[in-house]
From TrEMBL:
Swiss-Prot/TrEMBL GO biological process terms: cell wall organization; peptidoglycan biosynthetic process; regulation of cell shape
Top-level division of the source organism's lineage: Bacteria
Signal peptide positions (record): none
Major localization listed first in the record, in broad terms: cytoplasm
Protein name: RNA-binding protein KhpA
Keyword field: Cell shape, Cell wall biogenesis/degradation, Chaperone, Cytoplasm, RNA-binding
Provenance organism: Pelagirhabdus alkalitolerans
Role, per record: A probable RNA chaperone. Forms a complex with KhpB which binds to cellular RNA and controls its expression. Plays a role in peptidoglycan (PG) homeostasis and cell length regulation.
Family: Belongs to the KhpA RNA-binding protein family.
Cell compartment(s), UniProt: Cytoplasm
GO MF assignments: RNA binding
Cellular component aspect of the GO annotation: cytoplasm
């Protein structure tokens, strides 16, 4: 899942080397923290959060076969 998130985000940003995805597993959920360069935060979030919502939709659809809830936080 980390590879999927970074594959989606890297073409969107100006500093693809600074894209970092970390995973935190808990008992009933998995949280992915996406960290990008400060200048790229707006590009990842998009106008009115549309790009962030689209990224979350793709990630949630890809993980639909797991029992855990998946969350994506953009830092």
């Amino acid at each position: 899942m980390k590879a999927l998130i970074s594959t989606i985000v890297k073409p969107l940003v100006d500093y693809p080397d600074e894209v970092e995805v970390t995973e935190k597993d808990e008992s009933n959920k998995t949280v992915y923290h996406l960290t990008v360069h400060a200048d790229d935060v707006g590009k990842v979030i998009g106008k009115n959060g549309r790009i962030a919502k689209s990224i979350r939709t793709i990630v949630y659809a890809a993980s639909s076969d797991t029992k855990k809830r998946i969350y994506l936080d953009i830092m």
